[in-house]
Design goal:
Aspartate Aminotransferase, domain 1; Aspartate Aminotransferase, domain 2; binds pyridoxal-5'-phosphate; 16 helices; single chain; alpha/beta; 7-stranded mixed sheet; 456 residues
């Protein structure tokens, strides 16, 4: 089944991730993307789409960058593969040095993985071993936030707070506990409308969890700078400052999971810089190569590396493809593009324009909230704006899977309509997008959401 139409083969042989395959058994066609350029992608039938999600929060520098493809080819020809298990190669060394240059504080030690979930997994294992080596062997538990997504390996899944993703795989790794996230739109009544009070309350929830579990047993807190799952929750003012203090008070490591937020998504190389805090560990992946080759990293502070630098032991952890030469070389070329084209500056400058454009949608009855930072926004859909009443599970299913996902694509916009929390449309275009793309996104959403309101 070659040629341009691989629909049958996709249905019969490809196991698509997080995909309800019955959709395709029932006659649905698998969208097959074949080409990209800038903010656009084309499918096998030649239809053009605006990429409103940068693939999957990945393609920061845009599609079709020849220099990234050529860098990959050059590196593969020179040294396609060598492990970084007691050996090294130039691109991994150069990339580690360059990332350390961009991180805040003393986060100078880069442990490469092949993706985000592995980075999260690595961070939990490091936290456990670090405390064992430094005389606090009972510290092993982790705290994370409700509805947050941190990946699918079983450790990362235990940290993940999306109930639907967890239940089929229980029992999960023990020792992972959840606290409320920073969904200001649905803040508890006593702090609603006061962002600072909400931020204090949300950070204090972490401290209460540490105290409830016992500070001697808690190793780390995992948080995204802006939480994606649930619909884009930026931190309220003061949240991270307070969280940092709480972590310091109880000797709990603060892990900034920047798998989505790093590499310009919030307008800086690392998003902790955008919100003014220094974590103990950063996990990152997705945008590091703009998707031209897979790689991830766990970046740890000097303090965490110290027992491994000076002691007789090693971090007993690694991946065959961690720090792959091709990916590391592509990441360097990707960072060159960031610097040459000022992508972070562009995001900081254009973010208010993007926000203002999306906020026009607030005049629609179905749009309850528009929120986000940088080039990363969520639009929450509601049944009743005045009361913020959300849709029932059945309505949400009809709205998102039954209508929105397909209707948006049919209208030429690739993005995500998601209901891991309340229903949201997620937007995170390539960082080269500008006002023309923002307007197009707004217009397509306006048309499709207007129709959705009539149908629901
Ligand atoms: N952490 C966060 C915040 C993520 O958004 C993701 C993926 O979306 C992951 C971890 C897992 O990354 P990966 O899919 O590369 O394993």
């Amino acid at each position: 089944p070659r040629g341009t139409d691989r629909t049958d083969a996709a249905r019969d042989h490809l196991w698509m991730h997080f995909t309800r395959h019955s959709t395709y058994e029932d006659g649905g066609r698998v969208p097959i993307m074949v080409r990209g350029e800038g903010c656009r992608v084309w499918d096998a039938d030649g239809r053009e789409y605006l990429d409103g999600l940068a693939g999957l929060f990945v393609v920061q520098a845009g599609h079709g960058r020849r220099e990234l493809a050529e860098t990959a080819a050059r590196q593969a020809a020179e040294l396609a593969y060598f492990p970084i298990w007691s050996y090294a190669h130039p691109s991994a060394i150069d990339l580690a040095e360059r990332l350390a240059h961009h991180t805040p504080g003393d986060l100078n030690r880069v442990f490469f993985t092949t993706g985000g979930g592995e980075a999260v997994e690595s961070a939990w294992k490091l936290a456990k071993q670090y405390f064992k080596l430094t005389g606090k062997p009972t510290k092993h538990k982790v705290i994370s936030r409700q509805v947050a997504y941190h990946g699918t390996p079983q450790g990362a899944l235990a940290i993940t707070g999306v109930p639907d993703l967890r239940v089929p795989y229980e029992p999960l790794v023990p020792g992972a506990f959840k606290v409320p996230n920073t969904n200001a739109y649905r803040a508890p009544e006593h702090v609603a409308g006061d962002l600072k009070a909400f931020g204090r309350w949300a950070a204090d929830q972490v401290e209460q969890a540490i105290l409830a579990e016992g500070p001697d047993s808690v190793a780390a807190v995992f948080v995204e700078p802006v939480q994606n799952a649930g619909g884009c929750f930026p931190p309220p003012p003061g949240y991270f400052e307070r969280l940092r203090q709480i972590c310091d008070r109880h000797d709990v490591l603060l892990v900034s999971d920047e798998v989505i937020c790093a590499f310009g998504r919030i307008g800086n190389m690392f998003a902790c810089e955008s919100f003014g805090y220094v974590p103990d560990i950063i996990t990152c992946a997705k945008g590091m190569t703009s998707g031209y080759s897979p790689i991830g990293a766990m970046i740890a502070s000097d303090r965490l590396f110290e027992p491994f630098r000076s002691g007789a032991t090693s971090f007993l952890h690694g991946y065959t493809f961690g720090g792959h030469p091709v990916s590391a070389a592509v990441a360097m070329a990707n960072l060159d593009i960031f610097e040459r084209e000022g992508l972070n500056e562009h995001v900081r400058e254009q973010s208010p324009v993007f926000r203002a454009t999306l906020e026009k949608l607030l005049d629609l009855p179905i749009v309850g909230d528009v929120r986000g930072e940088g080039f990363f926004f969520g639009i929450e859909l509601v049944k009743d704006k005045a009361t913020k009443e959300t849709f029932t599970a059945e309505e949400s299913e009809r709205l998102l899977r039954g209508f929105l996902s397909k209707a948006l694509l049919d209208a030429g916009l690739y993005c995500r309509a998601d209901d891991r929390g309340d229903p949201v449309v997620q937007l995170s275009p390539p960082l080269v997008a500008g006002p023309a793309e923002f307007d197009e996104i707004e217009q397509i959403l306006r048309g499709v959401l207007t129709e959705a309101w009539v149908r629901i």
